[in-house]
Specification:
12% strand; 4-stranded mixed β-sheet; 44% helix
Amino acid sequence: MGLKPVLTRDFGQEGLIGLQGYERSGGYGAFKKALQESTPDALIEMVKKSGLRGRGGAGFPTGNKWGFLPKGVYPRYLICNADESEPGCFKDRYLIEESPHQLIEGILIAAYAIGCNLAFIYIRGEYLPQTELLETALEEARAAGYIGRNVLGSGYDVDVLLHRGAGAYICGEETALLTSLEGYRGEPRLKPPFPAVKGLYGKPTVVNNVETLATLPHIVRNGPDWFAAMGTPTGKGTRVWCMSGHVNRPGNYELEMGTPIRELIYEHGGGIWKGRSLKAFQPGGASMMVLLPEHIDVGLDFDAIAKAGSMAGAGAMMVMDETTCIVDVARRLVKFFEHESCGKCTPCREGTYWMANLFDRIEFGEGKPGDPDLLLDMGYNIDGRSFCPLGDASTWFPRSVIKYFRDEFEQHIVEKACPFRGEREAVA
């Protein structure tokens, strides 16, 4: 296991962001192969056989998701979700910056597989340089005949449109994304019906993440058995992990699924910075439950991380050293979710507000003895009662840190101050 460059194999190669450079590395060969040697149904079966699971957070099998589209209902749409807004997550930006054509080729393969003639890339509004890269790449692909009518003489018509979001984290949720793309306020929709049945403009729609789609050219080029041979029985292939926080070498690392977390942090990340020790980490992004040094040998795999008590999520490994105030980390993350709540449902809108106030109270020396249990009670009343996963997810990290670090909460309350604040300032 370990580093396994597949998507990132050619990154850094001169001219890769342009069409000619991408074609020199074999680019668009997989799309040509799909058009000439396969059928849409065969491509769906290929992706199912590969075991590819969505890289955006939920980890749902990609081929199965495509298979949910109702037969004979057209038009149907494909959406590339590039609204990367999860704190600690920056892999989609990396994939776009280094090889925009790889993503476009994956979109074209997916569109052909599901019988889609119009695909969209919904990109985070703050990603202006990445938007410009994609705009240029789309123009190049059109000029070369990969996008348009009768693509490469196959009789297949396809267009890809780029749409910038407006800075709302909630639009990373697939139904809120669809609502925003239609021109309305970005708010989630009730499910069912799911997007596969009734999505964009009320038609069958598939929403896939950037990394998921960028993986497709490699599966088509090398075959599903090649992809399935990597990783674990429940997590096939490779995945790009964004590592941030208190490590010597933060960045993006493409590893074979199942690689121990220890290897990611200590070998590729260079270990904990400033000679300090590991206190805790989040394996999947801001909303995921905290894990401890005792979990360091858990494999980077959906099911293994779930068994340890967290989730792989968006693949954002956030590392915290011994000087970290866990209460303050939870406070900041809850404030993020409070700020990004769309306000549609009461549990999320009001619950995140009151959780944020309670964390402020504890962190700044005004906490009361029953506050940790009150936070837990709030969390249990939000989780499972919110309209979409944002409300649920806002409670997962706070509840997990109370489970593992209740003593820190009690220390804040007894001492009427944050015990780490002075220490952090002294060693900064």
